[in-house]
């Protein structure tokens, strides 16, 4: 007796005729019914991107076997993921809890297809929230002297818990270049401005000083080049002259949490692919 | 010496395995390079929808020949369109010119892939604007006594000019059921409310009386059931207690024009397919 | 030694010349420095509305004494509130926690100037969340047979805790007409649609069936006329054909929580005044 | 027999107690009925800003006479304007007509309370549009050699036509520092990005390269410091990976035209006051 299972297939390769035909042929061979499919041909890079959601009674091995020759022929960057397996996610935070709260609440209600084996923070303030959601909380204080050790300990936790994604949920420490490189493509940060406006520290105060009429937040992949990583999502809200910089901070919490949650959701659903320094988001 | 030509292929049929493989095979056979592709499997209706943009050196006949057996096999509703052929569009208007102005300006700048052989109005107010854009303007006054004749004359113009789309750009007459039926799927109206709120007359005044905080516009296909046609696009703008109903009207002009122009653009680009009473918009 | 104290003054009355002069004179007499001021003359009702934030070293009695003759002269509906006194708020909920979570989190971070002495629910699901935030949780199950008793008990809690505002944070019971009347002007509900579209039950499923392109939420004062109370705030988010009704529900949680939190914030800051069936929102 | 006339009064001065009382007293003395009033106390600069719309049977002289002593006492920057007198506006453009089209159309429908005695352009492309709207069109070509003469001729036109506002409606020449200074506070530009992101040339191509998910436009006062003038209004629209830089340009036209038209409307309605490098917008 077989039961049907759902998978997400993502792939990218150099564009040339025949890719869709070859992929759809392999999926047909593996007994797949396609339930969602998106593709994109990048005019800039000449790369082809595809995400397909399928259901099949034949299982992961059959699917991989059918796709393997196609992947070889087109030199694909191929991923096959069971849809019901949540992404193993480590969340880092500091003192402010709005982003953490949104992620944990949405994880619990099923909106975010992630599981969170561990939360890491350089402060103790958010331990009660982690406790409420039943997530182990590891306190790793960071000083200039201990920074290297702290990052080593983080990488140990990433390895020990088979972490696939690290989310910086208003974690207020700058990661070292080495750490950024080792987490490349699997770490998402929320910056509290509409990048590339107002990089660096105190972006809401910069925004206030410039007199902008919209403020925003940017979720992006972490790179060694600070605030320059590939952008996944951006959202803005309206402000006016009567709002102070402190009110910008308070109003911004909601848009930060929302923007980060969307980015994590799409990443966890395998909807985000990298096209050089830009993202393809199949949402 | 051959030159490459661009086509849009749209199709819908009952969903079953193998559609994408068959279509992509036919496109490959016709020498097509896929430049854009979107598909959707409707969980409600069980129908499959697809829109593919391709370029090929082999021409329209080869493309049709390759797709014909696939279309038969899957009992498809199939359309093949040369991308550079603008949609023949008749615009109807009355006294207010904001929607007409947006359509004609965007047609001229190339944003809207339409050509406008004729404008029809029950008033003369907008004739100068039609003249400025060099579009023939036909004045068809409508009274209860002449309504049937007026509609007959409109249908003659639709036939004489090979019209593929009729756009009601704030045309302030209700079409008869018969006319609605004969234009089914090829007439787009802009309603000046966020449907299904505030159907019928004077929607901004209804909105003011109800004290809503957002007002909007809805572009939809015309059906005999007034203000109930399939929705193509909706947009809203924020209002507050200090705005009067008359200011709603003035503020609404911009959102009406924008919403209608988007709907016409997507229809003309063959991005809108009908899934029963709902629209699939591949944008 | 005196210290400065902040107050909010709200007033409404029939419009006639001299109100602002009289009010500003009284405030000057009470040693007030105006830090924020807004006013509105309703062209519909002929009523005048004003909200002034002031700081003064002279205290609440002096302020009331200075305003009393003005209030009498213009037959004002006058309110004077210490700005640092949070609004005593009772939250009602059922099984879904997104709205409750937003309110409690924002209360804790100081965004919402409320205190919550008690949470009431007809289910036990959200007791752990109430516990986490340290708020007493009263379980009042409701059946057709016990509804009258349940509402009586609620009114006892309102009286016992000096409740100034009742928030229905996705409380899934319809209040009786009598209860609506006794809470008139001090109960806020969140409806999960862009009212007046999709009143009644399962609004997201109604929205899906109608094929709308935006879904939304409406925070409004509770009245005996269901889903017809004065609207405080509305927000929308974009959806498309590929989203199911269930996804509308999930996507809607965020906009519901945000819309309700905004309405509660503005009400608690005394920014919302009633102009017949419409609201004046000084934000 | 007297008839009532409407005026806008704007003022700014150093904040201290008694301003509102003094102003409202003067307005009362001049027989004014206040129909709209807004004020703001800037916590940054310590300045007080006020805009009042009034109707009075007593005329402009009486109003000025009543306000004069108050203005002297508080050392106000005071403006008194007849509401029905449109702002004399010179529009500059180059080849692209979307911003000009929006301004002229909205002027004609009465949304923009401006009159346009003359349009200046360094190209002839938009002369037909000026002709259609019946506005004199002056062609002033600009080369490096003739730039100084061209700017001198512009200033002559500004003087000859009693121009109060110069609008750069996608005018593609950089103004000299001297010209910027002589138009300070009375020239509005539209920049085709969400400033301060993407200053300088080809902002949509910069935005594409950075992979942003929202693009926008900024209307600001012209200053000698390019793209750094006080911001009046900003708006954004959503883009995604599938849009090219050329499509950004096309999509951006609508948001540019809208943003500029809003800024011009608010400036013409005397709703925009300068608070150092930031704007107070009473809208």
Automatic annotation (TrEMBL), chains A, B, C, D:
The GO terms describing molecular function are: formyltetrahydrofolate deformylase activity
Positions annotated as active site in the UniProt record: 227
Which pathway does this chain act in?
Answer: Purine metabolism; IMP biosynthesis via de novo pathway; formate from 10-formyl-5,6,7,8-tetrahydrofolate: step 1/1
The record's section on PROSITE patterns has: ACT
Q: Tell me which UniProt keywords the record has, alphabetically.
A: Hydrolase, One-carbon metabolism, Purine biosynthesis
Domain (ACT) spans 8-85
> Which domain of life does the UniProt lineage start with?
Bacteria
Q: Which InterPro entries match?
A: ACT-like_dom_sf, ACT_dom, Formyl-FH4-Hydrolase_C, Formyl_transf_N, Formyl_transf_N_sf, PurU, PurU_ACT
GO biological process terms held by the UniProt record: 'de novo' IMP biosynthetic process; one-carbon metabolic process
Which EC class is the enzyme in? hydrolase
* Enzyme Commission number(s): 3.5.1.10
Catalytic activity annotated for this protein? (6R)-10-formyltetrahydrofolate + H2O = (6S)-5,6,7,8-tetrahydrofolate + formate + H(+)
What role does this protein play?
A: Catalyzes the hydrolysis of 10-formyltetrahydrofolate (formyl-FH4) to formate and tetrahydrofolate (FH4).
Family that this chain belongs to: Belongs to the PurU family.
The record's section on PANTHER family has: FORMYLTETRAHYDROFOLATE DEFORMYLASE, FORMYLTETRAHYDROFOLATE DEFORMYLASE 2, MITOCHONDRIAL
What NCBIfam families would the database entry show?
A: PRK06027.1, PurU
- Which protein are we looking at? Formyltetrahydrofolate deformylase
Source organism of the structure: Zafaria cholistanensis
Write the gene name.
purU_3
């Amino acid at each position: 007796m077989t039961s049907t299972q759902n998978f997400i297939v993502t792939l990218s390769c150099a564009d040339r005729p025949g890719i869709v035909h070859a992929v759809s042929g392999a999926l047909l061979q593996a007994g797949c019914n396609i339930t969602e499919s998106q593709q994109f041909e990048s005019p800039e890079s000449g790369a082809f991107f595809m995400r397909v959601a399928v259901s099949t009674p034949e299982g992961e091995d059959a699917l991989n076997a059918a796709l393997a020759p196609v992947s070889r022929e087109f030199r694909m960057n191929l991923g096959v993921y069971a849809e019901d397996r949540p992404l193993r996610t480590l969340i880092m935070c500091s003192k402010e809890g709005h982003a953490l709260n949104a992620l944990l609440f949405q994880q619990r209600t099923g909106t975010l297809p992630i599981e969170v084996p561990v939360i890491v923070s350089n402060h103790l303030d958010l331990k009660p929230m982690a406790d409420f959601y039943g997530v182990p909380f590891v306190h790793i204080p960071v000083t200039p002297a201990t920074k290297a050790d702290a990052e080593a300990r983080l990488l140990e936790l990433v390895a020990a818990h088979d972490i696939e994604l690290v989310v910086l949920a208003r974690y207020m420490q700058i990661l070292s270049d080495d750490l950024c490189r080792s987490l490349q493509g699997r770490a998402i940060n929320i910056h509290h401005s509409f990048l590339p406006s107002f990089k660096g520290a105190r972006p809401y105060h910069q925004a206030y000083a410039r007199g902008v009429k919209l403020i925003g937040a940017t979720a992006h992949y972490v790179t060694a080049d600070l605030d320059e990583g590939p952008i996944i999502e951006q959202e803005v809200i309206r402000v006016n002259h009567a709002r102070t910089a402190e009110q910008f901070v308070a109003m911004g919490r909601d848009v930060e949490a929302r923007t980060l949650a969307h980015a994590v959701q799409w990443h966890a659903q395998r909807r985000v692919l990298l096209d050089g320094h830009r993202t393809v988001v199949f949402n």
